[in-house]
Amino acid sequence: MVTSPLNTDWRKVAAAIYKKPSDAKILGTAELDVTELEKYVTRKRKEGLKITLTHIFTLILSRGLKDEVPELNCYVRRGNIIERKQIDAMVSVLLPDGSMSSVRVEHADRLSLEECVEVLAQGIRNTRAGDENSTMQMKGVIGKIPWPIRTWIFNFIKLLNVKMGLSLPAIGLDTNSFGSFVMTNIGTIGLDTGYPAMFPVSNVAFVFVLGKVSKRPVVVDDEVVIRRMITLSSAMDHRIVDAMHGGKMFRYIKRMIQQPELLEQSRH
User: Residues 209, 186: contact at Cβ < 8 Å?
Assistant: First the structure.
């Protein structure tokens, strides 16, 4: 029998010994200099393309999954690692009433910056108009069920959808409901950094957080200078992600923020 390259010995063992994701969560943080990246964003906005760091990192992470660490575009089902058929990003958005919702960006790795701006903008307009995607609508349905029945139903849904890998179209859940990863920009609400929760029914490999950009002293060419820095944080499912994967993705992110113009190209 030929073993799938996705199902390494470690992944098989991890899927057996860890629960999802209560004791399999890795937390990581890194700081990046985004001084030049912010200048690029400002220049593009003056040209009429209303991009933000959220758009930039949505595409960087999506293309990183495609080009650098495709082995992270997968999920655990019945103890095996299953490759996803496409790369989707679930991006958290802030609603006018201060609550949070999410927009799923399908085939995010194929989009140009301009296309990403339009897809996210349309998703936000739909959400603010009350037309959330089916995954987000589920929270309202479950929230109306009294406790403790609510907990029983949630655990039953998790058993069917996450552990058994069954699609539940009646409530808008399938194996790709939350996309390949979840990203949120907590810098927009003034937080420097934070470690995200991994929603138990999401079954994503990682959740990525953008913190607030601020001026900090750093050493450049043996001199202390003031640069614009951002803190990136992530919670990762250790059944899928290990240090090697995190290192490859981080190095890819560093390369891409130095040449963001590459993101302007569509890859359909």
Answer: yes
> Packing angle between helix 35-46 and helix 53-67, nearest 10 degrees?
110
State how far the Cα of 95 lies from the Cα of 84, in Å rounded to an integer. Answer: 29
- Residue 8 per-residue DSSP state: -
Q: How far apart are CA 206 and CA 203, in angstroms?
A: 9
Supply the range of the domain harboring residue 227.
9-259
Which among 167, 165, 178 has a CA at the least distance from the CA of 80?
165
In a domain, 266, yes or no: no
What confidence score (pLDDT) does residue 127 get?
Answer: 79
According to the model, what pLDDT value does residue 1 have? 46
pLDDT of residue 122: 92
**Are 15 and 239 spatial neighbours (Cβ–Cβ below 8 Å)?**
yes
* Domain containing residue 87: CATH number: 3.30.559.10
Q: What is the DSSP letter of 161?
A: I
User: For 111-126, how does the pLDDT look when each residue is reduced to its tens digit (9 = 90+)?
Assistant: 999 999 999 999 888 8
Instruction: With beta carbons less than 8 A apart as the criterion, state whether 32 and 254 touch.
Output: yes
Q: Output phi, psi for 240, to 5 deg.
A: -115, -40
CB 206 within 8 A of CB 212: no
Could you say which residues of the chain have pLDDT below 50? 1-2
Helix 243-257 and helix 53-67, axial crossing angle in degrees, nearest 10: 130
* Residue 268 counted as domain residue: no
* Whether the Cβ atoms of residue 240 and residue 76 lie closer than 8 Å to each other: yes
